Amino acid sequence: MTTDKPSRLVPKLRFPEFRDGPTWLAPRLSDLYGFKRTNTLSRDKLNYEAGTIRNIHYGDIHTKFRPLFRVGDEYVPFINPDASTNGFDDDAFCDEGDIVLADASEDLDDVGKAIEVVSLNGEHVVAGTHTILATRRGSVPVVGFGGQLFQSAAVRSGIKKEAQGAKVYGISANRISTVPIPVPPTEAEQQKIAECLGSLDDLIAAEDRKLEALRQHKEGLMQQLFPQSGETVPRLRFPEFHNAEEWIPHKFGDFVVKSFYGTSTSTAKTGQYPVLRMGNMNDGQLDFSNLVYIDLDPQEFESFRLQKGDILLNRTNSRDLVGKVSIFDRDLECITASYIVSFRLDEKRINPLFCNLMLNTQMQQFQIKLLATPSISQANINPTTFRTGLDIIIPKLAEQQRIAACLSSLDEMLAAQSHKVETLKAHKQGLLQQIFPSLEGNE
């Protein structure tokens, strides 16, 4: 391992047996890694059923692959048998210890996002379109350390500095070659860090699996607690309603007492009143972590003001996002952006929590999207059409409340588990900042 100049790098947090050891080194990325060829196969050349070569797609690095990539633990597509694989040889196949980076992103914070291949399980794996495949020049860094290294603030910052572009940011192997890489001077310290952070990754993955299991349980329960298409009775009913009458069809508008658009006034990072946008709507619930704000005359604000129990509809966006529905479930002074329509319900006839859950079933979401009319760039749902054209089927209020209470308790479990996962991820980010030294002042 070489370095262009002496380094005084020392992390804030170091394992006891290494505290009196030599300082870390700061070689260039190209001192540690060389680069292999990648391919440009598009998604339509890949499948998840069969093949002899698996392909790492840059989109999967952005969205689902874990930093320490084990082929047996990930859902990795095969290259189609009819796609040309003649160019795939030892210079193209991944080795354990290789780093695969996504070379493009619309978000600067994600450009150069990387995974380390730590287990191939005897399979042939290649790096696909919009990736950079970096392979170790020797046995350093040790396997398991690189995936943590490329998450560190020092390396992420160095890679982002090399990104070019406006709407889409990109990096190249040549540009990132000179990025300084902070590494411990001994393989023993690298291995210790890899084991520590790797065990935390395993814990996060285990808690993530619990979270996903809860999500699937809720999804399956919703399919049982709400009637399927063409049916008037759900397949699963609480004991006290086994002999109750069938659910009754209605138009959604039968239960709406008021509907209104949000404000079209410009928003800012600060202001008097929070404003909910489409990005705050997620799986029937609202995320209040990324709000924008607005200043309005109090009287004008009252015309847009949400009440607890209001149903929010994202009325215009792409075909995938139009029709998203959430419930406003907080005692908070708040309004929405103009592309969100709010519906206030007659709570003596329909339970808002039940209504929100019902509108987020697969069957109902399918029906909602059918109401959207396409335009040049996006789809639109007319609020009047939503009220008069959307067919729903509901039971008596008591059964609505029972279903809402059951699924709401499950939502609380989901929220608690999600918080646990996010807390563990934040803990890891804190450890990364402590275990990997900053390069500022050492470059």
Structure, described:
By secondary structure, this protein is α+β, with helices and mostly antiparallel strands. Among the domains are: 27-181, Alpha-Beta Complex (Adenine-n6-DNA-methyltransferase TaqI, Chain A, domain 2), CATH 3.90.220.20; 248-394, DNA methylase specificity domains (Adenine-n6-DNA-methyltransferase TaqI, Chain A, domain 2). The chain is built from eleven helices and 25 strands. The chain has helices spanning 29-32, 58-63, 146-149, 153-161, 173-176, 187-225, 298-304, 352-359, 362-370, 383-389, 397-435; strands at residues 33-36, 46-47, 53-56, 68-70, 78-79, 99-102, 104-105, 114-119, 124-127, 131-136, 169-170, 248-251, 256-261, 273-276, 281-282, 285-286, 292-294, 311-314, 316-317, 325-327, 335-336, 340-345, 373-374, 379-380, 391-394. The strands form nine sheets. The chain has a five-stranded mixed sheet with strand order 1-10-6-8-4. Strands 13-22-18-20 form a four-stranded antiparallel sheet, with helices on one face. Helix 6 packs antiparallel against helix 11 (397-435). It is elongated, with a radius of gyration of 26 Å. The model is unreliable at 1-6 (pLDDT under 50).
Task: Report mean pLDDT, rounded to a whole number.
Answer: 92
First-residue to last-residue Cα separation: 17 Å
CATH-level-4 superfamily name of the domain at 27-181:
DNA methylase specificity domains
Which sheet architecture does the biggest sheet show? 5 strands, mixed
